[in-house]
Amino acid sequence: MSVPQDAADRAAALREQLDFHNRQYYQLDAPLISDAEYDALLRELQALEGRYPQLICPESPTQRVGAAPLDAFAAVAHEVPMLSLDNAFDDEELAAFDRRLRERLGVDSVEYAAEPKLDGLAVSLVYESGLLARAATRGDGYTGENITANVRTIRGIPLKLLGAGWPQRFEVRGEVFMPKKGFEALNARAQQNGEKVFVNPRNAAAGSLRQLDPGVTASRPLRFYCYGHGVFPAEALPSRHHELMELFGRWGLPVSPELRVVEGVEACHETYRRLQSKRPDLDYDIDGVVFKCNRFDWQELAGFVARAPRWAVARKFPAEEATTRVVAIDVQVGRTGALTPVARLEPVFVGGVTVTNATLHNADEVQRKDVRVGDTVVVSRAGDVIPKVDRVLLEARPADAQPFVMPDRCPVCDSGVVAVEGEAILRCGGGLYCPAQHKESVKHFASRRAMDIDGLGDKLVDQLLDQGRIKTVADLYLLAVEDLASLERMGEKSAENLVRAIEKSKRTTLARFLYALGIREVGEATAQTLAGHFHTLDALMAADEAALQTAPDVGPAVAGQIVAFFAQAHNREVIAALRAAGVHWTEGVPEGVGERPLLGQIFVLTGTLESMTRDEAKDKLLALGAKVAGSVSKKTNYVVAGSEAGSKLVKAEALGVEILSETAFLALLAR
């Protein structure tokens, strides 16, 4: 069947569009169409080629995965050896390299092309007549493996070059790598499927390229940047490296956006520091900066030694991964009571610092990695993050290594440890008593929506605890003016005002007091519900999980947290001390709590109300059983809109949520 001209023209246009959008997405990180639109174009081209097989050509985007699985990789002899680079591990070694090169060239200063040293797999690409003809691994530098079928699946690598002016045959060299986000997604899928995860992005990239089935490679998020050339006609070669990279970019080959041309060794030091600081923000791993003499004639003059050029060097970053031994496993208690196992290590230099501790995150993580005291482990530190134990070297495990077991008592205050269903984190149950949680508990207790102690800010809380003036929230009610006046930024008048605010806070409501205790899962609405249901603190403290779940909107998770909190003797001691200090409320049915006609209704407040503050409106709604949310959703029943209401009002209108003016809101409260 002959191919109609309109079909041939459409296929050519689709190939051009798809190549353009591949470049926008995979090289420039600037997609101009959605994935769905791209897929629609690709399907249209596939349909045309299926109807008219004569339209199929090797450079078509539909042929990215077209080869059958291989039995093995054929050997490829590199026409120009793919040599490695010498390394410089500090500024002195880089300066020595620059000095040797200047002496050999007989010049005062060298212009360098500087680019990130990618942590991936070096490959060679040969183009013939503008089409990708062959791809090979570096191998031993002289002989590599033919991975053409796999490289064709990497969408950032053009199957057909753009523009014109390229040599009839030439060789591009570069690095195939896997972006960090793609690596994380790949490992997440592997874990879900019960498959082995990759150790790092470099191993993932190398493993993906050496798949016998190109279809597997195609499913991996691989990228490519050029960094040099091999076989290249001398008459077509520009005079400088950066000019060649610019040519590659115009031909559609991806080039690192971080490539810079710098003059002299001081500029090299500055470039190194710039990329080192930028390293954590890059979407791909780099392990140093490569500095190459920019002029090709000077490269030729400098020559080679053994397996490395004299005109280039890799200034390596400090190692981000190292091996050491676990000497102990301790448990730290965070400000919210979370228990975190921490490995104490034999000191090791990693990521530019000496590391002696590494987080093990939680009990599940320790069990999954099976970290034991005495184990030899691989520790990593990327950027400035906390070091972590990546994996155990099981072959080095001592015979007497014992599995680690998380404690059932808090190592700081000896309160019981609470485990919540569905959470990997264990927590200390002594929230009011535990010294590790003091600052968080006091700040929450004094906050405006809790006990509302005006003037007791975060910095003052820090001072009171750091100087031992208080140990628990109950001690706040024992403070005198003279205890406070001597503190930083406090005078007699400020101390008097704070003491008055503390005294005023003694009269509260049961709902506010419950919220102030900081029981996990007990927010303002739940505290209001509990106060309205149980009426007294003693009744609530005596309730078991079954009784608690008779209260509206209190499920097993919330009930479990409440029971666990009141079961801690230390928490009960602090509550008793608070009541003894004069903190009180009206027992029985709380003021404003009757049949709670708005129970289960969700309100959102937006804009400014004239008759009351937003906080006052919130209190009235909570007292009537309503929930007050911070954002509008399909579950929202009412949006109360005051003056200058913003985006929440717009979203409510779009979702069809009922909107109440201030007048309508007041009428609802009156009813």
UniProtKB/TrEMBL annotation:
SMART domains: BRCT (SM00292), HhH1 (SM00278), LIGANc (SM00532). GO terms for molecular function: DNA binding; DNA ligase (NAD+) activity; metal ion binding. Pfam families: BRCT (PF00533), DNA_ligase_aden (PF01653), DNA_ligase_ZBD (PF03119), HHH_2 (PF12826), HHH_5 (PF14520), OB_DNA_ligase (PF03120). This is DNA ligase. Residues 593-671 form the BRCT domain. The active site is at residue 117. It comes from Methylogaea oryzae. Its cofactor is Mg(2+); Mn(2+). InterPro entries: BRCT_dom, DisA/LigA_HHH, DNA_ligase, DNA_ligase_AS, DNA_ligase_CS, DNAligase_adenylation, DNAligase_N, Hlx-hairpin-Hlx_DNA-bd_motif. It catalyses: NAD(+) + (deoxyribonucleotide)n-3'-hydroxyl + 5'-phospho-(deoxyribonucleotide)m = (deoxyribonucleotide)n+m + AMP + beta-nicotinamide D-nucleotide. GO terms for cellular component: cytosol. Belongs to the NAD-dependent DNA ligase family. LigA subfamily. PROSITE patterns: BRCT, DNA_LIGASE_N1, DNA_LIGASE_N2. Its EC number is 6.5.1.2.
